[in-house]
Specification:
It contains 19 helices and 24 strands. The chain is an alpha/beta fold and 561 residues long. The protein has three domains: 4-131 and 256-434, Rossmann fold, CATH 3.40.50.300; 134-253, Domain 2, N(10)-formyltetrahydrofolate synthetase (2-Layer Sandwich), CATH 3.30.1510.10; 450-531, Roll (Formyltetrahydrofolate synthetase, domain 3), CATH 3.10.410.10. The strands form six sheets. Strands 1, 2, 3, 4, 5, 6, 13, 14, 15, 16, 17 and 18 form a twelve-stranded mixed β-sheet that branches. A hairpin with a 4-residue loop joins strand 13 (260-264) and strand 14 (269-272). The chain starts with a helix and ends with a strand.
Length: 561
């Protein structure tokens, strides 16, 4: 059996201009990065504004497990299948997804370009550096950090209180040693100061969030200027604009802000742009990319990171709230193996039939379905990402249990068969969209107090009994409620459980959501609630994926998955 990278390297790619032409794009609309990658030009984005929007299909998943769920693979397979179905009707589909972070590529998860015969290509380029967007985001973030410390060194005309500085540096790599740093600073006149700071991973940075929520270069620059970096000695907010940082930061991001287009193995166009994690950030690709894709295609398949309790909730309550986007249907990805894991089975024996564990694990699927239907008013289709170890009895049980939840579960074999393996899923998705139901809603209102927003997410989406804030979080909350209570909330917690405890599988209830820290993302316009033991700078596992990656004598990358 070929590995993902072997399948990708064996593929015959079309030129990106040929791919783009099938979506009525011409050479002037593209900024080529070689033969198979291009940026959509600013003039192209502007030209598209008058086009009607296509239908938006959101792909999400049950709570992640070590068994894997295949959300990105399903996103790609569904788009390829839709193009097979739609081609006879003069319609088309497109993928719109996030760019992989180097953290998981070299860490535990590996790449994020799909798998098997449902991949975006060139796989190695997308997973490694790509068009340099993440490096640009890191540079813009760290420029601001350098300007802050330089301002203090040069005399501190703004009277910045060094102890109040909240702006952290970032790097797109899992490096736990950088989490906490003592910075020994000195002013130009020789006065020493010490402050505690650290690094976040780039995908958890506010610059990444701003990059993905901005609707134009003007909006991007305004949001960057609105970043609050700390306070002065009079306890007044100091913004990036006070340091005149936003212009240079925008200059660093100008080219990166243009969405990037590549292709799937079956030559469906894929817009890959932006990449915040959904466990510690808001987990959605850029607004400018999603909106451009909706102008270019009749159906756009996008994804939200990790489980529906994280990525989908943030997609709706943050991204949709701020942009007017609205999914026509949600595809909820599940696997027999993952549901058995949620039912209590160890990873080592997941390939063995176990109907009892599968039935117990259905609680996780049921909670996600209930959340999407009841709390967000969305139509749901369950995609059963098929593994060869799945038995007919297990599939039948999953289909039956899904029917009892009021949703259709479709077996999908796109990993092995590409788009042909997801034709039934495509047909069901199109059928649901044709029903044209409009019951979409947000989980909470803008005018709800911040604590109540956190409690609403915790109790309704996670099944928690209540929320407990640390003393530090309580102090910050009191300050935030005075000026930023209208902001939505971005919960940073483990992806492996509905709770803030990664060991609690299934659909636990009555647990407590522990909030240890609240952060203001003034430019992104949301509040981050950091829960449990979650870290905004992940660490590498005992055996990092990087150990498998190399380059052979022919110059081909090996071991990347």
């Amino acid at each position: 059996m070929l590995s993902d990278i072997e399948i990708a390297q064996a593929a015959t790619l079309k030129s990106i201009s040929e791919i783009a032409s099938t979506y009525n794009l011409n050479a002037n609309d593209l900024i080529p990065y070689g033969h198979h990658i291009a940026k959509l030009s600013a003039s192209c984005i502007q030209k598209l504004q008058h086009q009607p929007d296509g239908k938006l299909i959101l792909v999400t998943a049950i709570s992640p497990t070590p068994a894997g769920e295949g959300k990105t693979t399903t996103t790609i397979g569904l788009a390829d299948a839709l193009n097979q179905v739609l081609s006879n009707h003069g319609l088309n589909a497109m993928v719109c997804m996030r760019e992989p972070s180097l953290g998981p590529v070299f860490g535990l998860k590996g790449g994020a370009t799909g798998g098997g015969y449902s991949q975006v290509v060139p796989m190695e380029d997308v997973n490694l550096h790509f068009t340099g967007d993440f490096h640009a985001i890191s540079s813009a973030n760290n420029l601001l950090a350098a300007l802050i410390d330089n301002h203090i060194y040069q005399g501190n005309d703004l009277n910045i209180d060094a102890a109040s500085i909240t702006w952290r540096r970032c790097i797109d790599m899992n490096d736990r040693a950088l989490r906490n740093i003592t910075l020994n600073g000195r002013t130009k006149d020789g006065k020493d100061y010490v402050r505690q700071t650290g690094f976040d991973i780039t995908v958890a940075s506010e610059v990444m969030a701003i990059f993905c929520l901005a609707t134009s270069l003007d909006d991007l620059q305004a949001r960057l200027g609105n970043i609050q970096i700390g306070l002065n000695i009079q306890k007044q907010a100091i913004l990036a604009s006070d340091l005149q940082a936003e212009g240079a930061m925008t200059a660093l991001l100008k080219n990166a802000f243009q969405p990037t287009i590549v292709q799937t193995l079956e030559h469906t166009a894929a817009v890959v742009h932006g990449g915040p994690f959904a466990n510690i950030a808001h987990g959605c690709n850029s607004v400018v990319a999603t909106k451009a894709a909706l102008k270019l295609a009749d159906y756009v398949v996008t994804e939200a990171g990790f489980g529906a309790d994280l990525g989908a909730e943030k997609f709706i309550d943050i991204k949709c709230r701020k942009t007017g986007l609205k999914p026509a249907v949600v595809v909820l990805v599940a696997t027999v193996r993952a549901l058995k894991y949620h039912g209590g089975v160890d990873v080592a024996v997941l390939n063995q039939e176990n109907l009892s564990a599968l039935k117990n694990g259905m609680a996780n699927l049921h909670k996600h379905v209930q959340n999407l239907k009841q709390h967000f008013g969305l139509q749901v289709v369950v995609a059963i990402n098929h593994f060869v170890s799945d038995t007919q009895a297990e599939i039948a049980l999953l289909e039956s249990e899904a029917a009892n939840m009021g949703v259709k579960a479709i077996v999908c074999k796109h990993w092995a068969q590409g788009g042909a393996g997801a034709l039934n899923l495509a047909a069901e998705v199109l059928g649901v969209i044709e029903q044209k139901t409009d019951t979409f809603k947000f989980l909470y209102s803008d005018d709800m107090p911040l604590l109540q927003k956190i409690e609403t997410i915790a109790q309704k989406i996670y099944g928690a009994s209540h929320v407990e804030l640390s003393n530090a979080a309580k102090e910050t909350l009191a300050e935030l409620e005075m000026s930023y209570s209208q902001y939505p909330v971005c919960i940073a917690k483990t992806q492996y459980s509905f709770s803030s405890d990664p060991t609690l599988r299934g659909a636990p209830t009555g647990h407590v959501l522990h909030v240890r820290e609240l952060r203001l993302s003034r430019g992104a316009e949301f509040i981050v609630a950091i829960c449990g033991d979650i870290m905004t700078m992940p660490g590498l596992p005992n055996q990092p994926a990087s150990e498998r990656i190399s380059v052979n004598q022919a110059g081909d990358i090996t071991g990347l998955s």
